[in-house]
Amino acid sequence: GQIVYSIAEETERGASVGNIAKDLGIDAATLSARKFRMITGSSKQYFNINASTGALSVNEPVDREQLCELKSVCLLNYELVLENPLELYRMEFKVLDINDNSPSFPLSEYHINMPEFLSPGARFTLPNAQDLDEGANSVQNYTLSPDEHFCLEMQIRGDGSKYPELVLKKALDREQQATHRLVLTAKDGGNPPKSGDVPVIVTVLDTNDNAPEFEHSVYRASILENSPSGTLVVQVHATDLDEGPNGEVRYSFSNTTSADLQRMFSIHPHTGEVRVNGVLAVQRPLLEMLIEARDNGAFGMSSTAKLLVEITDVNNHGPEITITSLSSPIPEDAVPGTVIALLSILDKDPGENGKVTCQISENLPFQLKPSLQNYYSLVTSELLDRELISEYNITITATDLGSPPLTTQKTVWVQISDVNDNPPVFSADAFDVFVEENNPLGAFLYQVSASDPDIGENGRVSYTLRNSTVAGSALTSFLSMNLANGSIYAKRAFDFEQLRSFHFQVEAKDNGSPALSAAVTVNVYISDQNDNAPAILYPPSQNGSVAVEVVPRLADEDYLVTKVVADDEDNAQNAWLSYHLAHSSDSTLFQLSPHTGELRTTRSMRSTDFLKHKVVVVVRDHGDPPLSSTVTVGILLADTLPQALPDFDDSGEPPPLLNATNIYLIVSLACVSFIFAAFIFFLAVIRL
């Protein structure tokens, strides 16, 4: 709770103020047990509390003028702390002013030079008295000692302040009285009232009967608080109706203007320009000065005007950004709204110049939210993905509302920590592996590859073969795999003729918790090698014996003797077969088709042909290198099948040197030679 006491200043020590226990409803007997204590920010302890009764009394008299200077309301704030239980009470003491200060004048005496020829009604400004008391206890009126030539009148300036003026009631005669000694008395409104006197010495002059007169009784000006030295504040101007030196006006600050203000400002004695003379090190927004205009007469006359200078705040302080708390790194699975940092943003300028707006870039997954006064929270606005962006440089821009506005930037570096949110991904949807048969044991077949965009253990991938069977046997009897790099090796030799292809699955698993995995199918295709020679299916031959075919003795040309049929277990070009005659007992009698393997006669049989012939046929594939097989065919010229087949181990009787074909050739050659010789002879005869 809070309680307010009022006490007059200078109240003697020990005077009762009140009873804190009664006023706050506290049992006075418990004050000591609850360890009461009074806390104040003042350097002196002005009040005491009686621990047994709770009576509140004055510990030291309070001087209001010393404590609060010119403040209209003087307050002392105390806090009463009690323990068991802990309680806090606020006490406010309003110090009331008493009339303990008399009015005083800045100078011990004042001199006024007054020309004798002035007419009644002439006015002269008198000094203002100062009283440290407030309200009714301050200066209320002025009185002047009785004099037949002078009276006192109060005047009001444009701002409402009052000042005394000395008014001439009766014309002066310097020859009768050159000096008039008056007493100006200032009285306050206290009870009883107090007063202060100052002598006013009036010297009667014989010339210069016009004082300078300002255009305005109050001048107002406004300057910026950071105005440099030499800045023009205002130019005052006063006119004097006198001529010559009596009408020349010089300007200066009145003696009542404080020395601090006279150091901060300067006034040109001839032009009346008031300029900044140094740094405006003031905390008050309004400064008050009195400017005096005095002519150059033998006995200068003067008048004063008030100058009010308003100090305008400028936006000379940029916002200050302070990071009071920062959480970095943050996990990438942080939910939107997660607080990352707490920022304090302060601008020392008052008013609009001290109001601040704060923002960050719009293309970031973060946002600023106002928190307490001058505090902002930096929170996530959407889901994060470390694999896309692993860190952010967040630039915070604070701008005040001054003109021109001042901007401050601060960059916050936020790292994103990884979570295992990505399974391994293979480089292809499926892998095709081609391997030749008869491979060596342990041969490298292929290396599958999977990547995981996570980092650390979350991105470390290991490979395994999924359990399956191939041709009725376990996959592991065919293949092995390197768990670290995904290399696949053969554990046995493959045979194309037995197994042409198979497939299996490889699983890739990361080392996160929980672990994530993916699988891919690997197709293995076994390619053929030329490891099988052609097999002769027909004509059959057993134990290397000669296969016998019977041909009629008078068979015609292109007679099909037999057809050699062969097969090759290999594939593709390794199984492409061609047929060739490796040996024939009569090369002019038989021909073999290279593609079909058909053995036919090249001409009609003659009675002179041998009865037995032997042909060796070679069947060759197109492998690299090619493989071949041979078969020996015995050909028997007979019209009927004999009961016993002859022996074809020898090649039969040698053919006669002059058979019918040879005879035909010799006769043809002789005829051609004879015709050619006859033609040559004929040409020679014609020539001759």
UniProtKB/TrEMBL annotation:
Keywords: Calcium, Cell adhesion, Cell membrane, Glycoprotein, Membrane, Repeat, Signal, Transmembrane, Transmembrane helix. It holds the Pfam family Cadherin. GO terms for cellular component: plasma membrane. It is a single-pass type I membrane protein. PROSITE patterns: CADHERIN_1, CADHERIN_2. One of its GO terms (biological process) is homophilic cell adhesion via plasma membrane adhesion molecules. It is found in: Cell membrane. Potential calcium-dependent cell-adhesion protein. May be involved in the establishment and maintenance of specific neuronal connections in the brain. This is PCDC1 protein. It comes from Promerops cafer. The gene is Pcdhac1.
